[in-house]
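Example record

The entry below shows one chain as it appears in the dataset: sequence first, then C-alpha cells.
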Amino acid sequence: MKSARVLVGIAAAWLAVASAAAQMPDKFTNLKVLPKEIGKRELTDVMRGFSSALGVRCDHCHMESEKGDDFATDDLEPKKIARSMMKMTQDLNAKLPTVTGRPSPLEVRCVTCHRGLAKPEGLDQVLAGVAEKEGVGAVAAKYKELREKYYGSGSYDFGPQTLNDLARRQAEQKKDLDGAIALAKLNIEYNPKAAASHVILGQFYVAKGDKDAALASVKRALEIDPANRFAKQALERLQAPPK
C-alpha cells in the first residue's frame, strides 16, 4: 500500500514535467548554468530529474502565468538556490577524481541529498526540531505521519538508530529522562527486535532509579540477541550485589 502511494507520487511528478515539456518553447532564454545550446528533450530530462529528486513540480521553481509556467523568470527563491546548487555540484564533481583518486567516482546529484524531499533534512533533524518547538509528546505523531507517507521510499531513515540517538540527546542534553523513555518506547513499538534499543531503554530506567524496569529491558534485549555484549554487561551490573 505504501509503495503504491510512492509510485503514484512519482507518476504525478513525471506527468507534471511531461505537461511542462509540452509548454516549453523550442529555444530557451535566461540559461545561466545549463548550456545555452541545450536541446528540448535534454532540458526536459534535466527538469524531470529535479522534480523526482525533490518530490516537487515545475511551479516549485517556475512562476505560473495565464499562458502556463514562465520558465525564464527568476522571481522565485528556489530557482535561485537551484542554480547555486548546480554550480556547487558541478565544481564538486569536477574535483572528485582528484580527491578520491578514482577515475570515475560516483557523481553527486540532487537526489544524493534530497532523496525525494524539497528540504533535505534527515529524520533526526526533523524530529529534533519538533521536540524543541512542540515537546517530546508531539514527536510520536510526527514520526507516525512521516513513516506512513515515506516508509520504503528512502527519503528518511526509519531504522532504530534514529530514535535511539534522539532519545540519548533528550536524556543527556535536555536532562529529560521521561522524554527519553517515551522516545525509546516509541522506537521499540516500531522496531521491537532491535536489541540495542532495549538496552538503551534499560539505561534510562537505571538513571531514573527503576531497577526492575531496567532488568526487564535488558533481559528482553538478551532474548532477542543472546550475544549482545552491552546487554550482558548491563545485566551483570544490575544483578551484582550492592557494595
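Notes for this example: The two ends are 56 Å apart (CA to CA). Residues 123-239 form a domain with the Serine Threonine Protein Phosphatase 5, Tetratricopeptide repeat fold (CATH 1.25.40.10).
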